[in-house]
Amino acid sequence: MRSAASEDADAIEEMESNKSRDLGIVAACLGMSCAFGAAIGATSGSDAASEYFAGYLLEQSLSVDNLFVFVLLFEYFQLIENFKPILLVFAGILIFSSYKLISQGDSDEEEDMADNAVVKFCSKLFDVSDDYDGDNFFTVQNGVKMATPLLLVLAVVEISDVVFAVDSIPAVFGVTKDPFIVYTSNLFAILSLRQLYTLISTAVGELKYLQTAVALVLGFIGSKMVVEYTGVEIPTELSLAVVVTLLSGGVAASLYLPDDSKDEA
User: Fold this and answer.
1) Domain residue spans in the chain?
2) Which ranges does the record mark as transmembrane (predicted)?
C-alpha cells in the first residue's frame, strides 16, 4: 500500500503538470489571438487592429462568454443610429459597476452562500439534499426526489454568467461598434478561459488590487462612452493604453506592494 506522503507527492506533481499544460494552451491561444489581430491590421488598418486588441483585452479580463447575447443585440439594434441611445444606458451600468467594485473594498470575509439570492430561490422551488450524489443533479432520499447541492452550484454559476455579461457587453461596445471585431475579440478571449481559471484561481489571493484595477477600467470605459455620446472622439489607441496600464498596474501593485493584512497576521 502506498504511503500518504507518496500520494501527496503524486498529486502535487500532477498539479504542476496540469499547470504547465494550461500555461501552454493559454500561450497558444494568445499567440493565435495576436496573429489574428495582426491579420486584421494588415487587411483593415491599424485602427481596426487597435479596436480588436482593446476588445480582446476587455473580454479576457472580464472573462465571460457573451456571444449569444451579442447576437440578440445586433439583431435587435441593426443600425448604429438606432443603437446609439442605448450606449448611455450601458455607460451608466459600467460606472455603477465600477462604484460597486470599489466600494466593496478589501473585505476578507467569505460570502455565506446560504444567503445567496439564487440559492434561496432554488431552495424554495424544490427540496435540496445536504450531501452530493456523485455528479447527479437530483437524488432520492427516503423515497423523496431531491435536488443535490450540485444543482445549486450550476444555477449560481449560470445566473452569475448573465450578471457578469451586464458588465462585459457594455464594455466592449465602449471600444468598438463593429460587429466583426466584437465577435472575434470575444471569441478569441474565451478560447483559453478554462485554462486561465485553473491558473487564476490559485493566484487570485495574491492579486488583491486586481479588483480595483478592473473597477477603474469599467469606470473609464463608461465615462468614455458618455464623452463620445456628446461628440468628442477618444482614440482607440488611448483607450487601449489606459486599459493595459490599469490592469498591469493592478497586477504589479498586488505583486510588489506590501500586504498589510499579512503583516498584521
Assistant:
1) 4-108+167-264
2) 23-41, 53-74, 86-102, 150-173, 180-197, 209-227, 239-257
Integer angstrom CA distances of residue 136 from 124, 154, 161, 165: 20, 11, 22, 28
Averaged pLDDT for residues 117-135? 76
Q: Are 83 and 177 in contact (CB under 8 A)?
A: yes
pTM above 0.90, yes or no: no
Contact status, residue 54 vs residue 176, Cβ threshold 8 Å: yes
DSSP string, 148-183: -HHHHHHHHHHHHHHHHHHHHHHHHHTT---HHHHH
3-state secondary structure of 247: helix
Q: Indicate the residue type of 40.
A: I
Amino acid code (one letter) for 191? L
Residue found under cell 498589510: 260
Residue 136 CA to residue 254 CA, distance in Å, equals: 39
DSSP three-state, residue 234: coil
94 near 222, Cβ under 8 Å? yes
Identity at 44, one-letter amino acid code: S
